[in-house]
Write a structure and sequence with these properties.
The chain has helices spanning 18-27, 39-50, 73-85, 99-113, 130-152, 160-163, 165-172, 186-194, 216-223, 249-261, 285-291, 322-329, 362-397, 411-416, 429-441, 469-492; strands spanning 63-64, 123-127, 176-181, 202-204, 206-207, 210-214, 228-235, 265-269, 299-303, 315-319, 401-404, 421-426, 446-452, 455-461. The protein has 494 residues and is an alpha/beta fold.
């Protein structure tokens, strides 16, 4: 089965014209009206004055900034129904609403899509995004390593949620908790700060020359440090390059065995990389290898508003340890939040996640998974990868641009390792410093600026469901070639 993108009105510009931004700013209301404008005038103000000044982001297949997915038609309709029905999906009340059961089924179907056994990953929940999911993962990892350390000392299983981090660590005999990782997303540092471990607890165990890979010797040195508890955070898709921290089942098995010996927790930050598990076939062997063995982790995060192509905001979190979640996130002494008697195994989300007030994020996920199925999502990702590889192929052959990271290996291997992110720079230093802004100025294509080895670089992140490789590559090639031509012309007139 092959599901093609449905016909849709694709914006001609990915960014609004400057005059539209200026006009919208002049029309913004700066004070609260006393009498009110009325619904019709308020809506007209938004649609006529403000909406033209929004960027096209998820509506355009040519928006390659951040890792911004689109919204499939099924997900868009479902999201409107979310607002209409306005469910607070916090307490499991099966006699009153089916909302929590929809969330449970959406998450179990998501597990099926990603080839995870839902009966194993019983702690599963939708969040605002991978950032919130990383907070969950590190918080439960903190709980776990303290529990393991206290068990070694023949103590009762200690809980940070009950005792606080200082008392729990003291009684468990831990001097510190460290987070070992490679090229972590900034949200890992944020999560470490939020849960009381601090940004300084994040330790780089990158392999020299391949910063996305784990230096196993350094990993073993850190995890063996006396008085330390350890959380290992695996980057399943480096945000800058799309490359994976691990490359085989055997590597994950080795990590798992060592972590088990030291009472360590394995967390996977799979914001977009986790979707590589839907792929099959030799064309994607390096991506498939990077996703092998992730089922051996203790917790996994992902973003629905990236490659799943559901509306902002939507992330998901999976864990094999539901009991630890309830220790941290339970709502004690709140009788009005109690779940009515139910033996269906569905946990009230407010007792296993951050929020007590929750939007019905599950419904768009449920709708789009039903609409596309596993075959549809695989085909969608294959198109996105095909475009990324077209761009990478063009850059490798270009006299004006350079594909990053640099490689002396065969072109075929460079292209085959490309997932859905392409990072590159202009060979001319002066053009390179202006490249991101020049691309954005065309308003035909949007890219993110980044850095590589201390120098400016550009990044394409292909994640929109509407992508058609031939069509989008034609636009990208035209933009990149025209920028070089324009820059050269300017130099000739200096």
């Amino acid at each position: 089965m092959s599901i093609q993108p449905l016909p849709t009105a694709i914006p001609t510009s990915v960014l609004p014209e400057e005059h539209l931004l200026t006009y919208a700013r002049t029309r913004l209301h700066h004070t609260l009206p006393k009498a009110g404008l009325g619904s019709d005038e308020a809506i007209s103000h938004i649609t006529d004055d403000l909406a033209p000044a929004f960027n096209a982001s998820s509506r355009s297949p040519n928006y390659y900034g951040f890792v911004t997915g689109g919204t499939t038609p099924a997900a868009a309709l479902a999201d409107n129904l979310v607002t209409y029905h306005d469910q607070n999906v916090a307490v499991h009340l099966p006699a009153e609403t089916i909302a929590t059961e929809v969330e449970d089924k959406a998450l179990s179907m998501l597990c099926e899509l990603l080839h995870f056994d839902a009966t194993v990953w019983q702690h599963r929940i939708f969040t605002t995004g991978a950032t919130a999911s990383n907070v969950l993962g590190l918080a439960l990892g903190r709980e776990y390593v303290i529990g393991e350390a206290s068990a070694v000392r023949n103590e009762e299983i200690l809980s940070v949620g009950e005792l606080g981090i200082v008392e729990a660590m003291h009684r468990a005999g831990l001097e510190k908790i460290q987070i070992l990782t490679t090229v972590p997303h900034s949200s890992i540092y944020k999560a470490a700060s939020i849960i009381g471990l601090g940004r300084a607890s994040v330790k780089d165990i990158s392999l020299k020359g391949s910063s996305h890979r784990i230096d196993m010797a350094l990993f073993k040195e850190y995890i063996g440090t006396p008085g330390s508890g350890t959380i290992v955070s695996i980057s399943a898709g480096d945000v800058n390059t799309g490359l994976f921290a691990t490359s085989s089942l055997a590597e994950l098995q080795d990590l798992r065995n060592i972590c088990d010996m030291h009472g360590a927790w394995i967390h996977v930050d799979g914001a977009f990389g986790i979707m590589g598990r839907v792929l099959s076939g030799p064309d994607y062997s390096s991506i498939i290898a990077g996703c092998e063995g992730l089922e051996l982790a203790d917790s996994i995060t992902g973003d629905g508003h990236k490659l799943l192509n559901v509306p902002y905001d939507c992330g998901f979190y999976l864990s094999r340890h539901p009991s630890y979640a309830q220790k941290v996130f339970q709502n004690p002494n709140a009788a009005y939040l109690a779940t009515a008697g139910s033996n269906d195994g569905i946990l009230s989300p407010l007792n296993v996640g951050l929020e007590n007030s929750r939007r019905f994020r599950a419904l768009p996920v449920y709708a789009t998974l039903l609409a596309y199925g596993s075959d549809g999502y695989r085909e969608m990702l294959e198109r996105q990868i095909a475009l990324a590889r077209c761009i990478a192929d063009f850059i490798v052959d270009s006299d004006d641009y350079e594909l990053l990271p640099r490689s002396d290996g065969p072109k075929k291997i460079q292209i085959a390792q490309t997932y859905m992110i392409v990072i590159f720079k202009a060979k001319d230093k002066n053009l390179n410093e202006q490249l991101v802004q020049r691309i954005k100025a065309t308003r035909k294509v949007y890219v993110s600026g980044t850095a590589w080895e201390g120098q400016p670089a550009c990044r394409f992140a292909i994640s929109n469901w509407q992508v058609e490789p031939a069509r989008e590559f034609g636009t990208i090639k035209e933009v990149l070639q025209s920028i070089v031509k324009e820059f050269s012309s300017e130099g000739a007139h200096d």
